[in-house]
Amino acid sequence: MSNEAIDLMQRLARLRPQYAGAVPKQAVALDMVLDTGSLPLSLGGDEVTLVPLHEVAGVLGADTTGDLRSSFHQLHSIGALLVDEAGDVPLVRIVTQRPQRPGDPWIFHGSPEDTLVPKTCIPAQPGDLAADEFAALAFVRSHMSRGTEATPEEFAAHEGIGSVDRARDLFAAVAELAKVRGCPACPSAHICTRPETDGAES
């Protein structure tokens, strides 16, 4: 086997536990980019910026003291990062909102559409919880902000969750946090479009 083939096999073996089913091609591309210590980020428009991993992790609220490689793959597996292709170089986009229905677009950080997406108060940062628990909390709070009910069946369809039973366990793990009220200015006590520095009250 060539060195490239051996490297690919080793990456797939390391990544398999973090992705349900087959490891996506984009996950391999992300893993190779992580080797460089920086991410090629699209921050709106056609501009691409190389940003050190610790800076990106800080912006995303991820734990910068642990295994950064694992943290980025967790964020990718739950749809918080999208890996696109720009020629020979993978391009990483920070996701503001995943498609809500078939045919809806992805909305990315820094895009014109990003400013139109209401920000939901979430009483935790990604580094405070396991990635799948944080995803469950964000999912529940987003539904609360719209006055709809989050169901385990719908959440189970998200990549990386795997089963309705797992979704129920995650909902149970974040049930108390889900009840924490947003800041007083939030409509329905859950939507907030104020700057993060204004804080939130429980």
* Count of alpha and pi helical runs: 8
Shape designation? globular
User: What gap, in angstroms, lies between the N and C termini?
Assistant: 58 Å
Strands, total number:
5
Regions with little confidence, pLDDT below 50 for 5+ residues: 197-202
The biggest sheet amounts to: 5 strands, mixed
By secondary-structure content and strand pairing, the structural class works out as: alpha+beta
Mean pLDDT: 79
In sequence order, what are the helices and strands, one letter per element? HHEEHHEEEHHHH
Whole-number radius of gyration? 18 Å
Short description:
This protein is of the alpha+beta class and about 200 residues long. The protein is built from eight helices and five strands.
Describe this structure in words.
The chain has 202 residues and is of the alpha+beta class. The protein is built from eight helices and five strands. The chain has helices spanning 3-15, 25-34, 53-60, 68-77, 131-146, 152-156, 164-173, 175-178, and strands at 38-42, 48-52, 81-86, 89-97, 107-108. Helix 2 packs antiparallel against helix 4 (68-77) and helix 5 packs across helix 7 (164-173).
